[in-house]
Structure formats: C-alpha cells, structure tokens
Fold:
Amino acid sequence: MPDVTMPAARATALKTIRCDEIATPKPERGKVLLKTKLASICGSDLHIVYMGWNAHEFPLAHGYPGHEGVGEVVDGTDTEFQPGDKVLTVPSIWESKTFAGYQSLAPRYLLKLPDDTPLAHSLMAQQLGTVVFSCLRLPSLLGQTVAIIGQGSVGLFHDFMLRKLGVRRIIALEPVKERRVAGQRMGVNDAIDVTGDRATQAVLDLTDGRGADVVIEAVGSVDTLNQAMKLAKPFGRVVAFGLPPTMERVPFDWDTFFRRRLLLNSVFGAQDEEGLPAFRLALDYIANKEIDVAPFVTHQFPIGKVQEAFDLASSKQQGALKVSLTF
Structure:
C-alpha cells in the first residue's frame, strides 16, 4: 500500500519552489500508480519556474513541471505493469507531476527499465530520448557540419547523436569551461569559449564564411535563437530545441531568416509517439554502454531541498549538468 501522504514540490512564485506534504493519489483502474525514486531538473523546468514560460498563474500544481523520472510500480491494475516494476516516466507536459513522491500515469507514458542499469543512469534516457526524437527527424547529416549553441546536457546528448548519424564536424558554443571540456569528450571538434558576435564570427571563420549546414539552439533565449540564424549557411536549417524564456512574443530576425532562405523547426511530441520508440532507443544506448551517462549525473538533493536544487541547476555552477531529486 502507498503511504498516506507524500512530499511534493510546488512553485509558489517566480524563482520560488518549496516542498509540501500532501495526500498520496489513490490507485485508478487503467492507470499506473508508482513511487518516484529519482527525478531530474530539465532546462524546461527552469524556463517555467524561473522565467515564467507557460506558467499562467502561480502557485503551480504540486509536482509540476517535473517530467524526467524513474520509479517503482505500486499498483498497475488493468495494465501490463506489475507491482515492483522499475519504470522510466515520460509524461506529456499536461500530466507532468514527477516532482512528487507518487505519480498516477497512463501506461503509455511508461517504459520498463533493465535490471542491470543504475536508476540514475536510466533516468538520463528521458532527455536523451527527446534528442533522439529530434535528430531522427532531420534529413541525412552524413558528412555535414553542425553548430550547437550550448553544452548543457541537451547539447552533450546532441554531440553523441550527431556522431551516431555521421556528422563530419561539430562546432560547440559554450562559455562554461567544464561544459566545453565535457563536449570535447563527447566528440566536439571545435569548442568556442566566447558568446555573441565574437562567437558568430568564430563559426564563420571556421567554415570559411559559409556557416554551418545545421544549427541546433540548445539554450533557450531570444539572443541565441536569433544568433542561430546567423550561424547557418544559406538554405541551411535551424533546430529550435531550447524553449523561449517568456510567454511574450519573441523578437525574430526575419531579415536573416528570409535572406538566407533557412528552414526552422521546433522539437515537441516525443512522448506522444505510440510505443515511445525514441525513449526505447535511448534506454538501449545507455544499457548497452554506447553512451557513458555517468558524467551527467552530477548532483542529487533530497526533495526537501528542492529550492537549493533549482538554484544550482539555474546557476550552472559546481560543474552541474543534471541535478536530480531523491525521495
């Protein structure tokens, strides 16, 4: 039987999140009740809690916007899941309540985990899965040059996938030294340590003035979105992976976009694919040790220190890549 109450994080105002003790959800037929073991803080969580993106009114729901988690099934009545199963949770944004001690989710958002992989490593499959989903929707990248803005966990997972897809050259823009070093370990060819116009010029210099075939914006800011279009070659592509920092309309460099005849796409919906194939592939990469995710698991905090965990994830200090919560 589940506990009567559970800890659950709640964002009460911009940049303010606390831990409350609330009632545990009850089992529901057709849904899976699970006990959360670990949950990690995604960049999108920071955009919501620290920047107000998609946060129309505070306080937010308990457990929201957490969506990267691993847990143990407590009740799976009328589903294929059994009590004791270890699972990866990949809820849609509308059902994201992973920052809580228990969750009740539709089985389509769950994948059973391999027994011989540490839970902290399997947890990385959620974000890696979204990167897999994004990269497999691009045309052939064989022999191409790709520029990535940002070498947080999303940027680093892109480094891995781009190598798998035959990219010839990866250029990474990242001012934080520890993240640049991590990118070089993941196969980055050129790591640029400056930002803004100097970084743009550096990419153009490295590509003989042409720009990159594909540019991946993995930060989520107005400046870097518009910078991405200046880094792309004519007829190139920009992948807007990072979320906007505000619910207001974002200023857009239409002139560069138009003159360079660029393609631009966002990334959304990996959780809605039937059977969750991108996340299955991510779990396989991790279980088969094709990618070493141990360096990503940098910090863990008990759920009671959720504010401290969010502050660290936002600051990017202490070599933080993925900050996780324990229960």
